[in-house]
Amino acid sequence: MNIVTRTFCTFACTTSLFCQLQAQESALESEIKQYIATKKATVGVSIINPECQDTFYIHGNKHFPMQSVFKFHIATAMLARVDQGVFSLNQIIPIRNEDLTPDIWSPLREKYPSGVKLPLSEIIIYMLSQSDNVACDVLLKLLGGPAEVERYIKSKGISNIGIAINEETMQNNWDLQFQNWTTPKACTKALETFFYNRHQELSETSHAFLWDVMKKTETGANRLKRGVPPGTIVAHKTGFSGTRNGVTEAVHDVGVLFLPSSTPIFITVFVSHSLEDIATNEAIIAKVAQLTYAYYTK
Predict the structure, then answer these.
(1) Catalytic one among 25, 46, 68, 106?
(2) Is 68 labeled as catalytic in the residue annotation?
(3) Residue 24 lies inside a defined structural domain of this protein
């Protein structure tokens, strides 16, 4: 075979593979679009399969309120400070009575109503795995405020994000939740960036700690996890706004689904401005996960 023929065959095979991938991508996207078209909600989706370079987005560049999804970003910023030697995971952090904001979700406050001293690692676990709002605001205070987290995330090349307020402020004023925003595309990029850690965004120890905790998330088990077979590893973070006047602005789940081959699928599903009930909103996320998992394992 001469070099011209060999080059042509290589090109043809590459083009064929590219077309197959595009067809696969379009088929999955079509299934998801068909499903969400019947729902009275704005649904943002971003999916990346790094093994075959499949990517697609629905409302990929639209701004969505993050709610507790931003706790993933806060955790990365805090772990980066740990790597810099500013803090350590074993460092004991006092949580005082004035930190125990009432009327916001906090298993930590319920367990320690008079305050407590905990290792930094445990506070991060509370924030991520139980979506604890008191833990979140304690970490934000240690970091110097929400703007410092935004600055850190943007320094990693993720520009479409705004982090301006803490949980206490966000939970006490419905309209302010939109100040903490991102896009489906940017959220999935953040997941992929910190998962692959190509530029050593985090040390090996911090990286392992982050993803181990994400795999143990206890909230929203009937969202992404509900859509995949029992036993499937899912490392994820949820977000929820509550409902006002029949409108729910955030029922979210973002994370990594691991296929039986161990291939990670990076997935963001944001359900916003929804007139559906909570069960339906969560079912939307589960269905997107189900379609995605089924597609890549068929």
Answers:
(1) 68
(2) yes
(3) no
